[in-house]
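A quick word before the example. In earlier lectures we treated sequence and structure as two separate objects. From today on, think of them as two lines of the same record. Here is Insulinase family protein written that way.
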Amino acid sequence: MIVKTRFGRLMMAAMACLLAACQTSDMLPLNSDPDLVQGRLDNGFRYYLAPNDAPAKRVYLRLVVNAGSMHEDDDQRGVAHMVEHMAFNGSKHFKGNSVISALEDAGLKFGIDVNAFTDFENTVYLLNLPDNRPQTLELALRIIADWAAEVSIARDDLDAERGIVLEEWRARLGPMLRLGDKKSAIEMAGSRYATRDPIGDPETIRQVSGKRVADFYRRWYRPDNMALVASGDIDVAKFKAMVEQYLGAMPTATTPLETVDFGIPLQDGLRAAKVHEVGAEEPALELSFFSPLESDYSRAGYRRELAEQIAGRMLNLRLQQWEKQHQDWLLSGAFFSSAIGRETRQSIFTLQLKKGEYHSAASALFDLLATLKQHGFSDKAVASQLKRQLKLEQRRADKAVYSIDIAGDLVTTAANLDPWLSYKDRARLNLELIGSLTTEDINQALARLTAPSSRLLLQTLGAGEISALTSAEANALWQQSMSRQHSDFEAGQQTAEMPEFKAEAGSSRFIGEAADGRLKEYRLSNGLRLVFSQSDLNPGEVHFKALTVGGMGSLAPSEAQKLRLAVNLADEFGAGEVPQQAIINYDSDYPLVLSSLLDGQTQGFSGWAHRDDLAALLQLFRFKLQQVQFASNALKHWREEYQATRAQYANDPGEQFARTIDAKRYPGVPTVYNPDPELLTTLTEDELRADYRRHMLGNTDFILFFVGDIDEARLIRLAEQYLAGIEVKSEARKQYQIRPATPKERLQMPVSGEPRAETEVYLTSYPQPWSAKQAYQLSLMGELIQEQLRLKLREEASGVYGVTAWFWQEPGEDFSSGRISFSSDPERVDELIQQLHLVLKRMTDEGVSPHSLENKRRQRQDRLQRELKSNLGWLEAVSQSYMTVGGPQQIGQNIRFNEEVTAAELNNLLKQFIRQSRVFEAVMLPASE
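And the structure line, produced from the sequence above:
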């Protein structure tokens, strides 16, 4: 189960409340969506039913309980979360864990389609139904009705679940969590939030009585404090009748619903504070502005909120430019504004620093805010942003709205009792209001974001740092910045513009169709193949790939690392001679996206754009092929950042553990955790550019793939103009294979600062010739093994919160691999590893369960079919098939493999894998005292 621990409110409700077209007065309230059926049953239970057929036959259900950790008494800290767990451990109609089995039999996957989370204010249960058959809907509503009123909190089940909840608590422990808790304690000081972490208090989890758990359940799980959200392909009238049948029988509450104090005291003035946590020592500076969260559902309120959102986007664009002026001490800067708690708003600037120069960072940030206060955004900048926003909204209005997104938004509405209107009305209102916004409106919105007098300068100290700004020093800096006159930031900026690529046009000829007409193949006059698939799934959107064989696997490991670095530096600069800022400044409502691709066996480039901007994208692609450029001192800055990161994580136990595992499995081989020392010392930018030219620009024998909403004739004209003139080059390439070593002795590292053990078990099976079918069966086998390990280690032994198992084989490898990992109480490591091997032996001896296999096949079938229905999924399947076998033969093959796989085949593969596998165990333990 997911636990959200820092920001209690699910999401801000602004932008979910929209105007019907007939309204004219700024003070009229926003109307409701006529397509949404909402109401209350006689017992007070609320429902929100949103019919939507994207995708067809799918339904998404959410039970929203307006009770979280903020509703707990002092002796119940963690009980809201425990109740959520107990809902899956027995109810009136589903004994023990049978609710999970029932849902998996219906085609849902636990942890993905079946889940729940507890936060400060709410508990939400999620069911993503694979179909809309009456029996599936009835099963889901019967389960939801049990969750709402019939959970059995049996003593034995509760005692068993304590161990699982404690393991979830244990798994969360770490420097980043403690750092976040320290920040929250300062930001939320004086409120209940500061003492109500949703995961709970471990001692309470161990000792709380079943009576007190049941008290919380009966006190807050009542019909007038819950709601059902249903979004999907439903017959509303029939579904409403089912809701009344299953949820209308809950007895009406006879006492008033108790109130909870969600307030966070706001402290006037600018205060400074510092936090430090060993293991999370990346220096940072955060400037927050706190204010009461006000909900104004009028047209005027919506317009103000829209202006503030646009001002926030412009702030982030300004910060991107500002970063480049301070690269000596600044890694990145960002701004966002959201709810913190149910009744408070936080607008926050976050600076990630290279070093702890808090005085300089605060002074520079205050100067930026003073500049914005004095000059605001220019007419030109606002007009450009509004133009882009207007076009975005115009195209967004044509996009399909998916049921899962509607369900997520309606959870917010149900949790906060907000009004709701349709996405169509939202788009219509946005289009209308964006056209009415002025530079003055945006600058007033900008001023509102930084106007609150309750301000906090929070400094995260790096390793070895002890000094930071005091409140008095921060106020003095603020006054200095605000009292000085600053020059306009925009006045000194040079506008980078994208040049036009002069291309010599070529020609093309049609080769034929494939995949039942979904693919059209052409041959350009330079010999390159072009594969096109027309799709209006995302109106106006076109995705592009240019791929050739090669990739990281075609180079020795040290050379592959150099090329990876060269690719990163080249992409950071832009496209050939065109800097990133010129691409950002390009007059387009959709961003132009183009980046290098470098994986195991293929390489090339990918991008996407609106069809109206496809010519610009293809020109960028040609610039990319023409030359390689890096930003000034790019390698120097990369080394500084890398060394700073390595220094920060030098004593990080997890980093040490991963580095040691890599060193033992790949001795002498450069890896991500153990890079080639040359990268950090003698390598030059000229050498990196030469590597890029040789390996990336020297291999242009691409297959070109296009998927999207563009007329075929128009695409071919653009391809003839910009792609048929590419000089086709290639170099001889071979594939390197790196086989992992398998140490015989278990690696045990007592280095962790947490009271838990991290266990990883690696399995490598030789020989295993690669085939696409076997690779698919290995991944399916991994899911079946993971399910059996979950049942044994979690449900029976109560020893882990979760366990993961991956089994795979990459093309070209003559071995297959497996990895199983979990965290646990250190005292139980040997026991749990022994149980793990017993599960593998039992499955090898007895085979996989045909029932479990059928469930996994059904779950996967739905996912595989949905992947092929998306543009990106289809592009991936098409390009993968062409790059593997040179044509479309393998498109959709995993669907066929999934349909045809038998228990006998999996049993043979499992036996072969386990009996031939070499096993390496690695355990990170708490450091000795």
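Notice the following. DSSP finds 28 helices and 26 strands in the chain. We will return to this example when we discuss secondary structure assignment.
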